[in-house]
Structure formats: structure tokens, C-alpha cells
Fold these 2 entries.
Entry 1:
Amino acid sequence: MGKEKVSFNLKTPKGTKDWFGSDGLLRDRIFSTITEVFKRHGATSLDTPVFELRDILAGKYGEDSKLIYDLQDQGGELCSLRYDLTVPFARWLAMNPNVRNIKRYHIAKVYRRDQPAMSKGRMREFYQCDIDFAGANYDPMVPDAEILRIATEVFEELGWKGCYTIKVNHRKILDGLFEVCGVPKEKIRTISSAVDKLDKMPWVDVRREMVDEKGLDGVVADKIETYVVRKGGRELVESLQSDEALLANPSAKTGLEEMALLMDYLEAFDILDKISFDMSLARGLDYYTGVIYEVVTEGSAPAAAPSAGEEAQKIQKKSKGKTKNDDDDDRSNDPSIGVGSIAAGGRYDELVGMFSSRAQIPCVGISFGVDRIFSITKARMGENNRTNKLCDVDVYVMAFGGKGFTGLLKERMEVARRLWDAGLKVEFSYKRKPKPIQQFEAAEANAVPFAVILGEDELAAGQVRVKEMGLDKGHPEKDGVLVNLSTLAEDVKERLERKKTAAAAAAAASSIDADEGGIAKKIEDLDVKEE
Amino acid sequence: MGKEKVSFNLKTPKGTKDWFGSDGLLRDRIFSTITEVFKRHGATSLDTPVFELRDILAGKYGEDSKLIYDLQDQGGELCSLRYDLTVPFARWLAMNPNVRNIKRYHIAKVYRRDQPAMSKGRMREFYQCDIDFAGANYDPMVPDAEILRIATEVFEELGWKGCYTIKVNHRKILDGLFEVCGVPKEKIRTISSAVDKLDKMPWVDVRREMVDEKGLDGVVADKIETYVVRKGGRELVESLQSDEALLANPSAKTGLEEMALLMDYLEAFDILDKISFDMSLARGLDYYTGVIYEVVTEGSAPAAAPSAGEEAQKIQKKSKGKTKNDDDDDRSNDPSIGVGSIAAGGRYDELVGMFSSRAQIPCVGISFGVDRIFSITKARMGENNRTNKLCDVDVYVMAFGGKGFTGLLKERMEVARRLWDAGLKVEFSYKRKPKPIQQFEAAEANAVPFAVILGEDELAAGQVRVKEMGLDKGHPEKDGVLVNLSTLAEDVKERLERKKTAAAAAAAASSIDADEGGIAKKIEDLDVKEE
């Protein structure tokens, strides 16, 4: 290790960042909310290596394979950084043929050598939060419905009530209606991807792409229009089920039956009101074989040209005809997860079979775009609610004294130890004789709620002073209260509990206001910033 | 995405593994225990990218730099996978000159292209758990003492009471005594690393290395022996402080003063009994500048030739003269963390300055070898306590019925939804008409404690059956009890609470036995397996 000072390029690699402080705290809170929901549904965590054998990733991502990070050939196996969490899961399933039914979740970073757009949250290293149910031991749409239920629980518990919609469609309905309308078989995928743009451009432009660029018969395009502009709930399924042309197509028929079943199950799960059956939703990936879905919020579908003073409208209406970011969240094939929709997924029954012909395991899952969820949540919190605090400390142990004051360092340590023993989060100054102002500033910087103050006379009487930080001047306990050392930990715990209860009550009261447009307002602010 | 089945090499890359199921659950529990302790001391999480610019890592790991994984040059910056968490932290500190005092923790994977030894827990991708206190605003040994307190809290809360010792030494004492004994300045580092082997080989061999291989005067070596074989507590510090030759050396004098101070602070933190001042502890890394330490357990220092029937001895005595694995846990320089000692660290005041001359920030920290801690903990749990369960599910919702039974799928979904709404962890069969045996087997496979059983007649009366799994045949509640749907969630929560309380009481009772040698026995078993 040389002693000379070298001049370094002091930065993180392009498209990567350090997570620290309040951003890291907020992100961890999002992770733990999501994990808690996953566990509530019996899911188990799977942790795979950050790199895979290069062959495992080859041929899974089409032309986006160029975005894969390769490790240098240093002798031995050729490896690449994982590009998503779905392919490693499929590899694991193929390697573990005894596992026939599994609910697995995985929260980890993935890597894509794309052009980063930090302000939009598009990074080269970013987190994905995936949950997938694999296994053949199920009847149609039961696990699929539970995945959608999981999506609602995640967003409800993140506090997004009323601020999100789950768009749902079915690959078999889509394929069937293209056949019924007369789309030639070889054009179905490309016409499907044109339809998927309906949330970004008006029908006339989509039609032009189909007819002028992709050579579709105009009559066929017009037939397609009658279907794909439709969105709704159960009544739309029923209306389509009385469409004889559609019903004559086996794929569409199966798809509609499954969709009706799904609606039934979503009703049992009490989430029907969060669902929009949207016939224009197509999703980019080839590997979906059944139901597909995408969670959108106002924040993920900003207006093309937001008109000031535009009246608040229901999300479902709003999303129609609006422009959304090009960077659509697509769990594997699209390098820009987390910028458009905030979660997306679907059923993919044939991916595992690509690794092993012995292991054909049907799967259904969803991927949450944490970076986008993080940005929106942070914007929603507003400037006022943001803190610079780095951690949640309960107590700062201080000492004051007059002339000849020793600093009471060992005594502060002993008191800290008592409180640690009781499970409390405690800090104290590392100086032998810290000034009062230094100790108060350190406590305030982290918004520590309570100070325990040591004084020589009080200590001699076996007592210390417990002071709640930030009390008004006139408050009777402004200068703290004397507490016996023997009951100190208990006393502080009770005070913390009381303070938390009061804060929760205050938050509940203020969230009533926030629901009245406050959150939507914040999300709109975010969109403006991102343009 | 081609449709052809390709033959894949279905494996993870060499030296890496998937973490799943009960192993993953246990590891997560270790992580959360450690994180909780870290947070109790006001630490904030820092998450850095998995790869760094190649220049950042260059020149930090001496000849072990050959073990660094490089990313392929695909255009743009040259990057490498991180080798430890300390250098990224130092890079972050140098990049954030406004941060002058910080307690940060980081739990993440690091990468070393070493020869893997899976059975010993030596992997190419493995976890490190680091906590480091950086900043100049402290008086000597105060943060150092808190780091040692953190080490004890971690192992106490992992249930290792009485099963570990923290060996402590000070670089300044070591350097001073080498000077006093007459070691030429340029030989101090190499003689120091010979001394560090005293826990692996007897003095005669270490002396031979010093004299024959390293050309040290035999008289000097004999003087060294009088010091480095000594270990003890406070009394050893005091005895050395009356050694006039040592006191005349400024480095040794400072080191001893700091050591005495450390002992004072460790007493205030009530952990003096876990500490062994061990003059042979030298640690490999060049960058340590002050106190150094290493946590050992019987499991991390196996006997060179374990004699059957050897009486149990106090750890401190045991570790003397025993062979420990060559794979010493060294936080940055040794590629095999987590095999020898179970945690290690020290003070390094000059590392950050290698990145920026403006940022000379003193640091002290410790790294926990989670893989080793995992292996020992798993062995301690014993075969009997191990389960194959993949997740902690509270309730399995079932339905039974006679002829014409519909399966009550939607009803099961509704009941599951009620319980999820109450925050409970719930599963049910994804089949429309599951057989009773299938449902029971699914619940038993995950050791789910309670079943909620739906029957058509009972449902009509607004009731379901709550059944505790695994009750004996004669138990009065063997067949479950009828509960109103409206109070179901509450009822199940109460039962879960009661069951947990009972289990905790039973565990407390049995742990008294375990402490009486049970744990040590298990650790010895592990050593045998690892030989």
C-alpha cells in the first residue's frame, strides 16, 4: 500500500449512485412495507448471485442483450451481471426440479448498460422487487388473482389509497381479437406492440403506424379500433362474451372465460374497484402467455401538455389519451424499469422450459419499480415533512456542569449502556468534556426526541433529568423532569410510546386533508419537475 | 427469444450459491439481529454500487489485487466488483467532505476470485456486515470502546453468551515493543506478521521464522518472546506500564495509555469480562493505526489435534496454543473472511487520506463474518430444531365437504382476505376442489400453526372452525372450535399470541440446559465436520 497521495477520479461509475441518509431510510421503509406484504402471502426469499454464467442470460432479452454487463475473462467461466430477477428465478426453478410449487420474492439490484437518465430514475444499477408464484398445482386465475391482491396491498400500505389503478388484459383475448379482425398471424406481435402505444398517442397515429408502416389493411385496423379503445370492468367482459365473432375464436373464448373468473376472484378479494380491464394493454415481452397487468398512477402517466387549472378527474378517465413516459416499466425486456408504470407483470408459462425440457413450470408474477415508487413517495412527502436525519435515535445522553466540570464521560457511558440494555437507541458525545451547545446540536441534527441529562449533584442522588426536545418555552416540562436511574429505561420507554401515539393521531388527522387532493397535487408537481 | 430448447449448463458460477428456504430465513434473522444492534447505536445505512471505478480499488489490497473481479471493457469506464466494504466507504467519505462525523453500517456482498472452499464457507461471493465510525470529533478510545460494545451486543443477541472472546491489542504498543526489543525499523512489519501466527504455531516455530527466514538477531527474538506470549486484562496493562524500557518508547507509552483508557471505558460499558488483551494479536492489514481486535469462538479456533474426552476449558485458556484455520478473517486484505475469527477490525486513521488529501478522517470499525456466524449458528441449532419450512405462515384456510362439495373457493378467498386485512400471514389451496389431505399436507409442510376450516353448514351460520395443528388425539380442541366470522381475525390473533408465549417459555426453559455445554458441544461437532 503506497503512501503517496494519488489523484483519483472520485465518483461512482456512470449510472450508479450511493444511497445514504434520509433517502436510504425512505427506500428501506418502502422495501420493508413490500416485504411484509410478500410474507403475508407465504412467500419465501430467494437470493441468487449477482452474476450468472453468460449462457444462462443469452437469448433471453432479444436485441437488449447488448445492454448486459459482462465480467472480464480472467480465466475460468464466462459470466455476466444479472439483467433482471426473472431469468435467475427460472434458472433456479430448472435447477431444482423437486420444487414444484413455490412463492418466491426477491429484492435486489439488476444491471443494464443503458444510457442513464438519473432525473427520471433510470439507472444502470437499480433495484427490482419481484414476487412470483410458480407451480402447476393450481386452477386457472387463482394465483393470478392473488398477485393482483398483493399489488393492492402494497400500494394501500404505502399510503397510495385512491391514487393508483391496475390495468389488466389477457394475451389470449388480444391474440384472439387480432385473429377475428383479420390480422395475418405473422403480424400479430407487431400490431400488438402498436396497440400498446394507445396510452401514449391517439388512435389516428396508431392506425397510421399499423397501415402505413406495418402494411395492415385499413379495414382490419378499423375493426381493431372497435375493440382496443374499450376499457371497463366486469360489464366489459360480459359484453364481449356476447360477441359471437369473438366467441367463435378459441383463444378469445378461453381468455374471456378466464377474465370472467378473474373478476369473480377479485371480487372475493375485494379489489374489483381498483381494476380496469383495458383492451389496449399489450406489454412488450414475448414471454407472457396469459393475464398481463400494469399499475399506473397519475405520477407515472403525466399529461402530454398539462393545462393549468385542469379539474381533477378520476384516474381512469385521466389516463386515457395522455402521454406517458417512453420508458415503460417492463420486467425483463425494457431497460428502463421504474419510469413509466410503477409495477407490472403477468403470467409466463413457458420461460422455465427454455432451461430444461424436464421442467415446464407455469409462473405468474409482478415486479415493483422501486425507484419510481421512491421518487413519487419522496415528492408526496413534500418539503415540509422531509428531514435531514440519518437515523432514528431515541435518546441522546448529555452532561452539563459548572466550574471544574469533568464531563462525566464514564457516567454517560454507564447510562447509555443501561438504555442499550433495555433495547433503546442511544447516542452520546465522544468528547470527554463536550459543551452543552454541541450536545444539543448533535441531538437536534438527528431529531432525537429525548435527552437524558446528567449533573453531578443529581447523579449523587441517583437521579438524572429526562427532557423532551423541542418543547415550547412555557411548557411545564421544558427543563426536563428528574427520574431515578433505576427506573430510567422504563420511564423513557413510556415517554417514547406516548409521543409516538400522539404523533400517529396527529398524522391520521392531517392525512384526511392530504387525501383531498393533497397527494395528487404533489404528484403533479413531480411530473412538472420531470419534464 | 428462440423457441428451440438449448442445452444449458445449469449451475451458479463457481464460488457462488443461491440462498433459499430455511438457510435464507436463518441468515436473514442474523442480518436483522445485527442491523438492530447497529441502529441502536445511531448508525445509518450506506449502500454503494456493487462495482467501483478500477482506480478506486487499485493499490489497496497489495498482492491480493489479483483476486479482484474486473468488468469487461465494453466502452466507457473501467470498473471492478468491490472487494470489501471498507474501501467504498473511504471513497464515499472522500467524496463527501462535508460529512465530518458519521456512524455508517453496510451489509452487502463482496467479491474475490479466490479458490473457493464451500465446506469452510469460503466463497467468491459472500456477505460482509460492517459498522464504522468516522470523524475527528472524539476523544481517544471513546468510539473504539463503543465498537467493542457493539460486538458484544451482536453476539449476546445471537445467543452466544459465554461462547466468544474479544482479543484486543494496539498497533502502537506492538510497534513500540519491537523498537524496544531492537527490531530494525524496516523489519517491523514482517516480524509483526510472524508474531500474528502465534495462535497457529508454537513459539519455537515463530522464532525459527524470525531468525532463520527473516534474519532477526536471536537475542532480539528472545526479548520479543517475553512480551508477546502475554495475555490478560487490566492487570497486564498495569504491569506493562511499570516497565521502564517500554515507557521510554513514545509509541508504546501512548499505546499503553490508550489501552488503560480503553479498559476504563469497557468497564463503564460492562464488557470487561469479554475482553482479552492479547499481545500476539497483530492483524494482517497495513492500514491499522491504533487498537485492533478479533472476536473468536471455539468454533473459529479448532484444536490442532482434538483429543477425545478433553475436558471443557475456559475459552481464554483454550485458544492458547491451538491451531486456527489459515483462513483468517481479515476485513480487507485477506480473501477468506469469515472462516477463522467471526469478526475483526480496528482503527485506521489514514485510509481516507489515500483518496483525497483534503479529507483525512480517522475511522474505527468492525466487520462481522456472517457466513461463519451462519455456519456455527446452524450447527448449534442441531438437527432437531431444524425445519424445512420456507416461510412463517400463521393460518392455512381450508374447506371440507361431502358429496356435491363445491370447494368453497371464493369463500376461502374471502376468509383469507379478512385475515390479510388484519395483517395475518395466510395461505390457501389454489385448487377449486382441493382434497382435505392435500390441504393438511400443505399446511404441515410449512409448519403452519393454525387452520381455519370452512364447511357449508357452518358458513351458513356465519361460523368457521379454527383448529390448532398438531394437537394430540385426546386434546379437547383436537377437532377445532367454532368461531364467528366477525371475530375470526381477532380470535386467531389471540391464539397465535398464546402459542408464541408458550413457545417462548418452553425455549427459555430448555436453553438453561443448552448453556450447560450444549452449545460448545455443537460447535465442536461442526469443527469435526469441517476438518
Entry 2:
Amino acid sequence: MRNVHGFLDNDVTLAFIRYGTIIVVKMMLMSTITAFFRMKKKAFVNPEDTASFGKGENAKKYLRTDPDVERVRRIHLNDLENIIPFLFAGFFYSFSGVSLSTALLHYRIFLGSRIFHTIAYLVPLPQPARGLAWMAGYLVTFSMMYKIIMIAFTMS
Amino acid sequence: MRNVHGFLDNDVTLAFIRYGTIIVVKMMLMSTITAFFRMKKKAFVNPEDTASFGKGENAKKYLRTDPDVERVRRIHLNDLENIIPFLFAGFFYSFSGVSLSTALLHYRIFLGSRIFHTIAYLVPLPQPARGLAWMAGYLVTFSMMYKIIMIAFTMS
Amino acid sequence: MRNVHGFLDNDVTLAFIRYGTIIVVKMMLMSTITAFFRMKKKAFVNPEDTASFGKGENAKKYLRTDPDVERVRRIHLNDLENIIPFLFAGFFYSFSGVSLSTALLHYRIFLGSRIFHTIAYLVPLPQPARGLAWMAGYLVTFSMMYKIIMIAFTMS
């Protein structure tokens, strides 16, 4: 990278960019999975999306909610709710003077927790599989937030 | 913090990190409040979440929407819609050459507006309490955006 | 801007700030459009929002979902799902050593795709107008992600 800001002199920030990118790509894939399930289950929400299935009642019957589609949409929303705080926390955490190994531990647990959360939600696995996956990522984000607060609020 | 980027030489960016962290923690707490209301009101959305309440019809009756749960979820979504623009604007605003006191005014009004918005939504307080709280944060974000536009679009 | 980080020495980052600001302002306007449609169609979700329309049954009839309101809300959620990855990718992409002209191509296609997506969703235009608009922005974000991955994962 053009090293204008020295983002890459900081190996922890480099690690954040690597893990953050994978996590955001994973979140983006939820859009594709939603589209796939909408096609497969023929369950749409906009009248213009069903026009190719014919007219009138023929098309209208595909304007419906489907449990599998809604499930994928919930995963996507849960990703937004959890990954956005991670991106904020993970970025500033990488400047907090934390060691690379500690930071990697945080980033890796978070990545693992979101991947496992998605699998547990999609299958679905019996609880508390999904709950524990979510909790792991949630606590890791709080741990990074705590470090940022400890540093940022003790500086003059 | 490891001062690789001089983020902390800039007292306005330091202020942004402080207020941004508090605001993101507040947003994250909505997940816990949602979980709390789902437990309290026994209102779940995934069949696997109700398995511990028994089988068949016994568990099925807990698959329902509850007004209080939906209320908390709306707060969370409203947070996402408003706090994400704030994080974007607040970060770049802190490099716009604005004075610390002006920036603090913006950050503090936004933090106050979101906390009051959450209280007004949860209680709920009569309107226009919630509407005004939302408006305050919205206008503060636009004010920061305006400053960024004025600076970024006049540079060569 | 106070050039503490040299953000503005980097003309690609300056371009990101310009386009990112316009895109975030566009996303924020969805809140106002939602409010406008709620007023126009008298379709609200919170009992306290309908209090000014009278009491009891008189007010209750305005607690309803309206297709136009829901349409605007879907645009807003789709914006969140797509613009957040863009902000993450676009920021780090601007440090990837990419040329200004290539970066501008990415930022401009994304901005155009989101504006056209909103118009296609609001009108609504027949499919695949909205689908192609969404796809353009989605692929551009992946293209930036790919570049970030190629750079960040090949550094020692």
C-alpha cells in the first residue's frame, strides 16, 4: 500500500485490515445468500420482482415471506449490529499499543464467532450454539472497547 | 496509544474516539436489552430458541412478536441508521481544522440526543420528545458533513 | 483540513472523503423520506406517534404498515447493507497505491449505482433495473476488497 499514513508500519493495523476485510466480505455474502433463497423459494417482497412469473394472481402468490429467507435476513441484520462495532473498535484498538499476539487473539475469536454464528443460524444448530457464538464476538468487542477507553480517557 | 499515526496528537480526534466509543457501547447494549425483553416476554422468532420450553405446541406459542421487543429492535435499527453516519462524519470532521470546543459541542449534543432518544423511545415519552431528540442528532451530523464538504471540495 | 495525518496529501483519500460524504448524506436522506411518507400516508408504528390524531380507535387506525413506507425502509436497509462495506473498503483502498483515475472510477460507479438503485426502487422501475444497479455497486466494492486483500496479504 502507498504508505502515506504509516498504516502498514503498524503491524496490528495491518492485521486489522486483513481480518476486517474477511469479515466484511462474509457480511456482504449474506446479500447473495438472501437473493439465492428468494429465487429458490420464490418468495419476494416487491411486485416488480415477480413480473417475470406472469401477471395478476399468478405473480401475486410469490409476494410472500418465507421462513428460510427471513432467517438469512436476520443473520444479515445481526451481522450489521455486531460487525459495525467491531470495525470501529478494531481499528482504534490497533493504535492502543496492544501487542500483535493479543490483537490477533481478539480479531481471530471475532472472525471465528461470526462464521460459527452464521453456520449455527443457517443449519440451524440447537441452542445455545448460536447464542454462545454471538456472545464470544460480543465480549471480544467489549474487551477492545475497554482497552480503548482505558487509554483514551487517561490521556490529558 | 501507540502514536503511530499521531491520532492522539490531534486532541479533536482523541475527543472523537472518546465520544464515539461511548456511543457505540450504547448501541451495543441494545442487543442485550433485546435479549432481556425476549426472555422476559417469552417472545422468540427462531424455533430452536424455544426448544427449552418443551416440544410441539408448548414451544410454538412462544414464537410470536411482542410490542416491547419490537420497540427495542426499532431503537437498535434507528441507532444503526444514525450512529453510522455520525462515526463517518465525526472521524473526518476531527481533521477539518475545527476547534476543540466546537467539535466537543457537536459530539456532546449527538451523544445526548441518542441517549435521550433511547429513553424517550423506551418509556415511551409523549411526542415530540423522541422526534426532537432524533432531530438534534440528525442536524448535528449534517452540520459536521457540511464542514467536511466545505473543506474537501475546496481543496485542489 | 488540519493536515495532521496527511489524509489530504493523499489525493485518493481526499476523493474517498468527497464521494463517501455524498453517499452518506444520500443514505441519511432516507430517514427524512421515511418520515415524509409516514406523514403523507398516515402510517405509524408507535402509539405515541398517533396521539395527535385523537384518542382510542381514532388514533389506532393509523397504526398500520403502508406499502410505500415499507418500500422506503427497504431502500434504507439496503443502503446500510451496501454502503457500510463501501466505506470500509473505500477508505483502505485509498491507501493501496491505486491510481487516482482508477479509484475515481470505483467511487463514481458506486455513487451512481446507489443513486440509480434508490430511483429504481422508489418509482419503481421494472426489473432488472434495480437489480443491475445493486449489482454494479456490489461488484465495485468486491473489486476494491480484492485489491486490499492482494496488498495486505502479501506484505510480510
